[in-house]
Design brief:
Number of helices: 11
Low-confidence stretches: 254-259
Structural class: alpha/beta
Helix content: 40-55%
Largest sheet: 5 strands, parallel
Mean pLDDT: 80
Strand order of the largest sheet: 1-2-3-4-5
């Protein structure tokens, strides 16, 4: 394996050997071009052992495998503690693009840890599959806020504008209360070529949903005068004005001191 430049994908299936031996394999893989690794749980009967094994595998792979772009740990029983451990490692990771964690029982605690990592640190992941993990409304809201935080304009800008998917089946992760916000944000992140473009699309939803204001000239003229300076100042600094051609005459007039 060591130095093999043709190897691109590795599957660890029913691996129950000595972890020291496994670490030797991982060290060898770090000298290859392997970009996709799938770990199949080695024990369906003893989830506690599977949990320790999968978390150790994931941590070791993320730490050493610089070419790794996809890591599949589906049904590996990592639990909340495993999700927290992985989120810590992924905070500053710049190579992994897809992380599959279906049926790992990470719950709200694991979901919140992943959400915090996505919102505040990681800007590399484009796909994180979290189907069937027992995530309730609390964890769902945290995941939604990671990519669409409408509590303020500042928090909206800080949201993750890179992640394009949380799921294979949206209903296996999210309820109705946050579903539309999540789907819109995924679409914005997928279709937009820059964070400014994505945040502009999300701002349109925030203003329309929370304030009944649409991004066109007439509705801004009728908006609350107290709100106007904050909205316009934020828009001018943080958004893609090319996407907001309807607003440009008004914005330029205000920014130049007009009335």
């Amino acid at each position: 394996v060591r130095g093999n430049t043709n190897l691109k994908r590795v599957r660890f299936y029913e691996y129950g050997g000595n972890m020291d031996h496994f670490h030797m394999v991982i060290s060898a893989l770090s000298e290859t071009n392997v970009s996709k690794i799938i770990v199949v749980p080695w024990s369906q009967m003893y989830p506690r052992e599977g949990d320790l094994y999968a978390v150790a595998v994931g941590k070791r792979l993320i730490a050493l495998q610089s070419n790794l772009t996809r890591l599949d740990l589906n049904s590996c029983h990592i639990g909340p503690s495993g999700a927290i451990a992985l989120s810590t490692l992924l905070a500053n990771n710049t190579t992994l693009r897809a992380l599959h964690l279906t049926e790992n029982n990470i719950g709200d605690e694991g979901a919140v840890a992943m959400a915090h990592m996505l919102k505040n640190k990681n800007r590399a992941l484009k796909e994180m599959v979290l189907d069937n993990n027992g995530i309730t409304a609390y964890g769902q809201l945290a995941l939604r806020n990671a990519i669409y935080d409408d509590s303020s304009y500042v928090e909206l800008e800080k949201s993750n504008h890179i992640l394009q998917s949380y799921f294979d089946n949206p209903r296996s992760v999210f309820g109705k209360s946050v579903m539309n916000d999540v789907l819109l944000s995924h679409a914005a992140n997928l279709r937009c070529k820059s964070a400014k473009s994505a945040v502009t699309k999300k701002l349109k939803r925030v203003l329309s949903k929370k304030y009944g204001v649409a991004l066109h000239f007439e509705s801004f003229l009728g908006a609350d005068a107290v709100m106007m300076p904050h909205v316009l100042g934020w828009v001018a600094q943080k958004c893609d004005l090319q996407m907001m051609y309807e607003l440009k005459p008004l914005l330029f007039n205000l920014l130049e001191g007009g009335k």
